[in-house]
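Annex B.
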Amino acid sequence: MGYRHRLAAATTAIALAAALAGCSTPPRTPEDAASSSADAAAPSETESQGWNRADLSFAEEMGDHAAGSVELAVAALQVRDLPPGAEELAVQIRDEQGPQARTLAELAEEWSGEEGGSGATGTEDRDEAGGVSASSGSEDGSAGGTASDAASEADIEAMSDAAFDSELQVLKQATGADAARLFLQGMIARHQAAIALADGEAQLGTSTEALDLAGAMAASQGDQLTKMRALLESYGS
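DUF305 domain-containing protein: predicted structure tokens.
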């Protein structure tokens, strides 16, 4: 599920949860997240436009990641008897990362369009749904990548989506402290990966907007990590 699809699902979930209230991939590892930003660091013509490929990669990866975190938070808010501490965190994550996910999606759309129009060579192409696919060409015009490479990437994405969907279903069936533990365990892993993504952007990015957003997300999610670990311990996990 690409970042646009995940964002759309998260936005729908927020609206549904708000109506019900009367007014709301296994996670990437920190190593995976840092590697993704590092792979996108090669300079290009886009740097003269105020952003580089590390910024584009960050916007795509973190946008998808934040939308998934919102979806997980909304699912937690819909379970029965969620303890107040976990509920407060879920509301904070939903309200904070929802707008961040939308901003990142807008940046990714803007930058991917500029990259396609600038003639800069890239390693990724946008598909119609807003996802990322293997490039069909290299700098010298020859075909890039192989069918087996594309299949491997598709398999990895499918497994990640399946694991995330499974995580959501298990959470939705849980109640009380059990649901809180599942939510906190999943969100702790997601925050660790998000902070790694933000650190990669801080090292490699050039966009002021993306760098400011990365710094804000890392600071906020670092504070939330401390709270979540304390809560998880209080629930006996």
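Strands lie at 124-126, 132-134. The chain has seven helices and two strands. Further annotation is deferred to the next reporting cycle.
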